[in-house]
Amino acid sequence: MSEVVEPVEDGAAERPHRAIKSFVMRSGRMTEGQQRGLDQGWPQFGLQLEDGLRDFDQVFGRSAPRTFEIGFGMGHATLEMAAAAPEHDFIGVEVHKPGVGALLNGALTQNLSNIRVYSCDALEVLRDCVADASLDRLLLFFPDPWHKARHHKRRIVQLSFAELVRSKLKVGGVLHMATDWQPYAEYMLEVLSAAPGYHNLSADSTYVERPSERPITKFERRGERLGHGVWDLKFQRID
């Protein structure tokens, strides 16, 4: 993520750097199920940023293909993917507590054991908790596009993001992004095409067809009925 450095007047002490966040913390009421997820699911599935670098083979009790998802929302797609691929492990990060509770409640209800959850800044988790060259996939589905030009610096997709993700993916690992806003899709394509060490998996070096492993959300179905598009991008780490 890029950082903002406030100008320093002559003779004034330099102010500390302030990292720009790509998300806004939102409050929301918790349903009974979401609260159950936090109360009963967090001790089983929750992970803490403060614990630092983790051995995820030890965390999951096995060695398996590993997917890291940034911003899982209410967790519907994560649950569907985890249920469909029990041989894969999923690490999800979300700052919105009702969404965290919903995912945890779903994991309990469906008796899933291949999900772990962080509730904090995903970039901090990547930097501090994930070993280099340890992920098979990183998913970024429908991130906030920050439409206004003055807010583009808040977009999570930046060259620094691409470089961080590449360092955490195994060689051959894939960064999969999706957005329903075409200007953001074009921006993502521009950024990742300029990032070293990646290969665009699209046949024409643009977008891929919606992969079968990415669940279609209710929001996406509604958008399709209204004629809205969705753009998927897949970039593979090649070195």
From TrEMBL:
GO terms for cellular component: tRNA methyltransferase complex. Substrate binds at residues 148, 180, 217-220. One of its GO terms (molecular function) is tRNA (guanine(46)-N7)-methyltransferase activity. It is an enzyme of class 2 (transferase). InterPro entries: SAM-dependent_MTases_sf, tRNA_(Gua-N-7)_MeTrfase_Trmb, tRNA_methyltr_TrmB_bact. Keywords: Methyltransferase, S-adenosyl-L-methionine, Transferase, tRNA processing. Its EC number is 2.1.1.33. Pathway: tRNA modification; N(7)-methylguanine-tRNA biosynthesis. S-adenosyl-L-methionine binds at residues 69, 94, 121, 144. It catalyses: guanosine(46) in tRNA + S-adenosyl-L-methionine = N(7)-methylguanosine(46) in tRNA + S-adenosyl-L-homocysteine. HAMAP family: tRNA_methyltr_TrmB (MF_01057). Belongs to the class I-like SAM-binding methyltransferase superfamily. TrmB family. Catalyzes the formation of N(7)-methylguanine at position 46 (m7G46) in tRNA. This is tRNA (guanine-N(7)-)-methyltransferase. The lineage of its organism: Bacteria, Pseudomonadati, Pseudomonadota, Gammaproteobacteria, Pseudomonadales. The gene is trmB.
